[in-house]
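Board work, copied verbatim: Renalase, FAD-dependent amine oxidase
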Amino acid sequence: MSRVLIVGAGLTGSLCACLLRRELQSKVHIVVWDKSRGAGGRMSTSRSPDPSSHPADLGAQYISATPAYAQSHQSFYSELLAAGVLKPLDCIIEGLKQKDISYNYVTPLGMSSLVKHFLSESGKHTPDCTRRGASWEVKRKVGESETFDAVVLTMPVPQILQLEGDVGPLLSVQQKQQLDGVAYSSRFALALFFPPDAVFSFPWGARYVSESDCIRYIAVDPRKCRSDPAGRGPSMVVHTSVPFGVEHLEEDKEEVKPVILQELYKLLPDLPQPISIKCHKWRYSQVLTTVPDCPGHMTVLNQPPLVCGGDAFTHSNFDGCVESALSLLGALKSSL
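↓ predict structure ↓
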């Protein structure tokens, strides 16, 4: 049985793990590691310290399906819809530009439920990967090292380049240049948790903001997902603009939080006071420049397999992550 390590418990990593289990079944033992406390990556759902408030999606807000993948990815959408993980978006979103998007979906149980649907096993570690003959010795920052027959890296590209061990030296000059060229947007996100008796005076479930240099997007999670809060108070998510995120990127998030809040109450002066507030810095929010000439993945070493994937190797949305996971599956099936 081959032991496969997938580093990164976001959508690409979790779906890759799921597809490997389905395709190779008893032939592989799959382990998923992530440095964060929970699964989800940029599809994370944050819970209030007070259980009387609704959870909030700090990262991705909804899933947009593009016509180009309507047929090839239909089985994934059908599976998630049948399981109740996805449902059609059906609320007022002010300022939404449809462009060529055919369908939008929301996750009634939070964005992390989509990742958890595919993921059955996860850890919380950043590895040091060293080649040992026909296998990989991977050491966590705390604890003993483990040996794997294949390693899949699905975290943001800058984190791949920062890995210790043999990963960097194994990259060719061309591969290093390609990875160095990947660019991400950065932004801050606030989650505001309100008491059960909180009332909002506006009708929309989400809104794209054009009149602020600080705030780009606001959403009320129960309204956006049309979910029954079951006696819990609403939650609100605020995303800053990318220029604001870049300007304040190296500042402590707790110092940036009051600046965002001040702007929020200018936009919504009647907003009630929340019970609690969380601030998160998305250093790697969305991919702006992808890896060129890489159809979903990059093979660093054929034997023992070391491959990289994620939305940086396709494009930054659900379909891009699915496309990368399928590409990684093809590469691993031919190597294991």
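The longest strand covers residues 187-193.
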